[in-house]
Amino acid sequence: MFKQTGSYQIPNTVVWECSDEGFPKRRIFISIPTGEVPSEGFPVMFVLDGNAWFAAVTEISRLQTRPPHGYPPAIIVGIGYETMEPFCRKSRFYDYTEQVDSSELGFLKQVEASQTGGISHFLDFLEHMLIPALEKEFPLHKTDRALFGHSLGGLCVVHTLIKRNNLFSTYLAGSPSIWWKGGYLKELIHSFDLKENKRIIIGVGEKEKGHMVDDAKWVYEQLEKQPNIEAQYVCIEGTGHMTVVPPFLNSALKFFLANGLESGKL
């Protein structure tokens, strides 16, 4: 005989809710490693579209950071929204993009121009609200911090590296939507200044639309030439726009937590 005894929860996780000056509520999903806290605090990986990817990143991280041969453990922070769906279309189009007008939306029928353009507001939220709140509550490493995003989230990751690179040391961009706003990031990519060393990995699926693959590789090639940037590019065979994410997460976690090595500990 079977009986229901409860609902499944990922161990050692908590959920916060917050509102940002009238913006719809955001849900913040937080995974805290067990075991001894490193002297400098835990590395922390911020995950955009947290409703979709937080659980996957957390469980992969929990498996890949198990001793004795795992990567160093990390706090995982998923930034999501008040929805039971994987994505909140309206909110992510606002949070992850620069403003466009109706003529620039092209084939996109699911969003209005007025619902775009909140990326500076979103990064202010990260810098001045979320990160300070997390620092008060959890032992975060002061500098060893990564930002992961896919698609529009990947666009946000590259934008953040160019426009607000004081926030993170490592950038994990999956299938970045470089086409947004006429490819505006291509105009900015040669004009930003880095005061400190930064790292970025860009991943894309082999079977994605041609411009997605070409743009991802082009951005990698430009960043790879820049001083103070360590850049890596992966095109994952046999994967499309969504199926690329699970294998890219393996590459991204390795890049962030073990500097690309197969094991974080000997």
Would you kindly provide a written description of the structure presented here, covering whatever features stand out?
It is a single chain. The chain has about 270 residues and is α/β, with parallel strands linked by helices. The chain has a single domain (about 15-255), classed as Rossmann fold, CATH 3.40.50. About 35% of the residues lie in helices and about 25% in strands. The protein is built from eight helices and eight strands. It has an eight-stranded mixed sheet with strand order 1-2-4-3-5-6-7-8, with helices on both faces. Helix 1 (about 50-65) packs across helix 8 (about 245-255). It is globular, with a radius of gyration of 18 Å. It starts with 12 loop residues before the first strand and ends in a 9-residue tail after the last helix.
Offer a few descriptive terms.
alpha/beta; 8-stranded mixed sheet; 8 helices; globular
